[in-house]
Write a structure and sequence with these properties.
Layout (H helix, E strand, L loop, with lengths): L1 H20 L10 E4 L5 H13 L2 E6 L2 H8 L7 E4 L5 H15 L6 E4 L15 H29 L2 E5 L13 H19 L5 E7 L9 H13 L3 H7 L3 H16 L5 H12 L6 E4 L1 H11 L3 H8 L3 H7 L1
Parallel strand pairs: 1-2, 1-4, 2-3, 4-5, 5-6, 6-7
Length: 319
């Protein structure tokens, strides 16, 4: 009897959560949303999707080529803003343009999406400069943009959406990407709590592996090859001459198994975080995030280390 009652309570709780999760804002046409990293990938797709929904989209693009490509399929409402989030002057210029666009209404949504992978190699192959660039782009850049735009978000009592990674919970290897995403998770948590009293909702999106420029296997292989070719001879001997090739094969096999082409899964999370009356604090996107990486973070460390140190995880997902 107790088991049936418990199951009923759980079912009622889920139904209430599901209904609450579906409640959306009625009007978005008067709301401005600023998205960084709109040249390609998630940002580009999100800018176009939000534009179709009626948002006043301000799209931050690193390159003029990316901005031109984005505006070809967009309405006249969408405006692009040149932005390099690692440069203070570029951020200041973008903030001035955004301030003029939003006026007294303020900025409803800030989506910190821009990011890079950097060089992903064993730690003893790397220099501090290999860590510096991903941390500047993935962590310090979004923090700088957020701090500058917070007064406008406060004015609108709006939303901040930080795109981190499911690998901000668990590092798979060496390089600056994983520390930058761990740091962004921490910034997201502190910002969410600090902004709650101002009526600002802060959400974190943790995508799994998707087929974007950031996960391009050829790019990663070339950058890794460059580092390998310049390693001291004794380090190469320690790893063995076939290590480079085998590690690339393993990574590419894992990407083929786990990566998704459906970038709209991440865009849906962004859209829900901006338009739901009760947005979630965390979103996971991709089946690999839900079924592989997040469950692995709850395993004992020695089990996770074993799985990541062998081909076991590849074999498991190949079944």
């Amino acid at each position: 009897m107790f088991a049936y009652l418990l199951a009923l309570l759980l079912l009622l709780w889920f139904l209430c959560w599901w209904l609450r999760d579906r409640v959306r804002l009625q009007k978005v046409s008067d709301k401005h949303v600023f998205i960084t990293g709109c040249d390609t990938g998630f940002g580009c797709l999100a800018a176009r999707a939000f534009d179709r929904e009626g948002f006043q989209v301000l799209a931050g693009c690193l390159t003029q080529e990316g901005a031109r490509s984005l505006t070809t399929d967009a309405s006249s409402r969408l405006k692009t803003i040149q932005l390099d989030i690692t440069k203070a002057a570029s951020i200041e210029n973008a903030v001035n343009q955004i301030t003029q666009e939003v006026g007294d209404a303020g900025l409803w949504g800030l989506v910190n999406n821009a990011g890079i992978a950097g060089v992903l190699c064993p730690t003893d192959w790397l220099t501090v400069e290999h860590f510096r660039r991903p941390i500047e782009v993935n962590l310090l850049g979004p923090i700088a943009v957020t701090l500058k735009l917070l007064p406008l978000v406060k004015k609108a009592r709006g939303r901040i959406v930080n795109v981190t990674s499911v690998l901000g919970r668990m590092a798979l290897g060496g390089g600056g990407y994983f520390p930058s995403k761990f740091g962004m998770e921490a910034f997201n948590d502190s910002l969410r709590r600090d902004m709650k009293s101002f009526g600002i909702k802060v959400a974190c999106i943790e995508p799994g592996s998707f087929e974007t420029r950031m996960t391009n296997c050829d790019v990663h292989r070339n950058s890794k090859q460059c580092v390998w070719d310049n390693l001291p001879a004794d380090v190469r001997r320690q790893y063995g001459e076939d290590y480079f090739l085998q590690s690339c094969i393993r990574r590419e096999k894992l990407m083929r198994i786990l990566s998704s082409r459906d970038l709209s899964q991440v865009v849906w999370c962004m859209e829900h975080a901006l338009t739901a009356k009760y947005p979630r604090t965390r979103y996971s996107a991709g089946m690999d995030a839900k079924l592989v990486w997040i469950p692995m973070t709850y395993l004992p460390t020695f089990i996770t280390d074993y799985l990541l140190g062998t081909d076991t995880i590849i074999n498991l997902n190949a079944v």
